[in-house]
Write a structure and sequence with these properties.
alpha/beta; Rossmann fold; 254 residues; 48% helix; 10 strands; two-stranded parallel sheet; binds NADP nicotinamide-adenine-dinucleotide phosphate; single chain; ProC C-terminal domain-like fold; 10 helices
């Protein structure tokens, strides 16, 4: 059983650690001892050790998942050479990482928060076959993995699947509000939206979005009235612009 060293104990580290719990030995590394201990306890992490570091982390031969904020990368110093670094930080390129930390192999991964429930999608880039295999062994446990053959595609993919849960969260919230405005209780409206997302995710596996839209939109019916309002509000352009803005921001972090 490999040991995976996770640097960070935030939201994404939690999603990853909970998914890998019991399947790998874990080591949680960070600068706040109390936060690490709380993280291990609250998430019932098994086979897990902790490493409280104020400045220099000895990374010798470790398999590391870097799950801190991009601006925090240089808070730590990294001594010796790690085996593999899985860098999940939005926008931080392998070239940038190489200036900070020495590793036998580097891998960019853009996971998403659905890893917490075993339904994440992780977009992965590495030019090393063994690292790709290890990445698959780790990130498939959290859901599914998609490999890209150009590192720059991590930033564009991240702007969709990494940030996507926030966009869909906004859509879900708006639909709940819409139900409330139409006189439904918050609970009922939430239940409807949950069911809607659940069913939609399953439908997407067998139909393309356009088909789902046309199957729901009868001529002269109610749904086309709603679609017209969404088009009047430039919803499609708003999503395209949102992804473009997230991608642009990621590029500034490279
Ligand atoms: N959340 C997502 O959906 C998602 C998806 C894909 C990728 N990511 C990537 O995952 C990484 C972590 O994101 P998150 O959402 O988990 O953030 P988070 O919940 O805010 O956690 C941030 C982590 O970074 C550490 N940190 C922050 N500032 C630091 C500093 N100056 N020095 C040392 N450590 C510092 C925090 O430790 P302290 O508490 O000690 O500050 C904490 O462990 C980011 O790079 C992000 O791009 C996130």
């Amino acid at each position: 059983m490999n040991t995976i060293s996770i640097i960070g104990y935030g939201k994404m580290a939690k999603a990853i650690a909970c998914g890998l719990n019991g399947k790998f030995r874990l080591e949680i590394i960070g600068r706040d001892k109390d936060k690490i201990e709380k993280f291990i306890k609250e998430n019932n992490l098994l086979n897990t050790t902790s490493l409280n570091i104020q400045s220099t982390i000895d990374i010798k031969d470790k398999i590391i998942i870097l799950a801190i904020k991009p601006y925090a990368l240089e808070y730590f110093k990294y001594e010796n050479q790690s085996k593999v670094v899985f860098n999940i930080m939005a926008g931080v390129s392998i070239a940038k990482l190489k200036n900070v930390l020495n590793s036998q192999s580097y891998c960019r991964v853009m996971p998403n928060i659905a890893s917490l429930v075993g339904s994440g999608v992780s977009v992965i880039y590495s030019d090393n076959i063994e690292t790709r295999q290890l990445a698959q062994d780790i990130f498939n446990v959290l859901g599914s993995s998609i490999f890209v053959d150009k590192e720059e595609h991590i930033n564009s993919a991240g702007a969709i699947s990494g940030s996507g849960p926030a966009y869909l969260g906004l859509v879900a919230e708006a639909l709940v509000d819409a139900g409330v405005r139409e006189g439904l209780s918050f609970e009922l409206s939430t239940q409807l939206v949950n069911g809607l997302f659940d069913g939609f995710a399953k439908l997407l596996k067998v139909k393309i979005p356009n088909e789902i839209r046309y199957d729901t939109t009868s001529p002269g019916g109610t749904t086309i009235e709603g679609i017209l309002e969404l088009e009047n509000s430039a919803t499609r352009a708003a999503f395209i612009n949102a992804v473009s803005a997230a991608h642009k921001k990621a590029k500034t972090l490279s």
